[in-house]
Design a protein that fits this description.
The chain is mainly beta. The protein contains one helix and 14 strands; from the N terminus they run αββββββββββββββ.
């Protein structure tokens, strides 16, 4: 199982350059293309809502080249906390993955995030990861995360397995660290179940995050105003998703 960007339906904000890369790879006779279109009750990203707690539509595309190169992207109808209406949030990624004779797989690549109407929030990350069987670990680094003007490192562990013949369970634990600014650090996790029937995918998960914010606010969206005193708050939310694979 090669690693991929963590997304709600297995394949877990697209840029035009990476979309072009995906098209080039897709032109290869042995490239595999897959995708999905669907809706989630709340678009959660690393424990925080990027849709202001509202439902969001999502379209994704993934391309796997026969020689180990991969690329893909997605667009989501999100809404940052300061925004009064929905806008498109794009994610694009590309990289290289390889399976070793031992069964261990590794990958490395670059991802780019773009927020329509809020370009100050755009950011890029480099990532690297390892996987074995149903478990994977990834490390992401950004020199300017979500317009906060600070460097961040995000580490995550993912796993899952079968629950009978048609259901599966999955989990993720992650930690975002901002060197020099402990107020931005947070731990987050996801635990859920999912099933697929005749091309349709359904998923229910509990997303939690322990936030260290200033002002003790309980806002669960990016872009919230910061105040003075630091605080630590645990948020949790059930998220339902439905998608059609293609």
């Amino acid at each position: 199982m090669f690693l991929r960007m963590p997304q709600p339906f297995h394949r877990q904000p697209r840029t035009y350059a990476l979309t072009g890369l995906a098209c080039i790879i897709a032109a290869s006779a042995q490239a595999q293309v897959s995708g999905s279109a669907g809706i989630v009750s709340d678009y959660m990203y690393r424990g925080i809502s990027l849709s202001s707690g509202k439902p969001a539509a999502r379209l994704s595309l993934d391309v796997d080249g026969a020689n180990g190169w991969f690329a893909g992207g997605q667009v989501v109808s999100g809404q940052l906390a300061p925004q009064s209406h929905r806008t498109a949030q794009w994610l694009g990624y590309g990289g290289f993955a390889q399976r070793l004779p031992s069964g261990l797989s590794w990958e490395a690549g670059l991802s780019a995030y773009a927020f329509h109407g809020a370009p100050d929030w755009n950011f890029r990350e480099v990532f690297a990861g390892l996987s074995f069987d149903n478990y994977s670990a990834r490390l992401h680094y950004s020199p300017d995360y979500l317009g906060f003007r600070e460097r961040t490192v995000y580490a995550e562990l993912n796993g899952g397995g079968a629950l009978g013949s048609s259901w599966r369970y999955f989990w993720r634990g992650g930690y975002l660290a901002a060197p020099g600014n402990a107020g931005s650090n947070r731990a987050e996790g996801r635990l859920g179940v999912g099933t697929a029937v005749e091309g349709w995918q359904m998923q229910l998960s509990l997303d939690t995050a322990r936030l260290r914010r200033r002002g003790g606010g309980t806002s669960a969206g990016y872009g919230s105003a910061a105040a003075s005193a630091p605080s630590s708050t645990v948020h949790g939310k059930l998220v339902l998703g439905l998608a059609r694979g293609f």
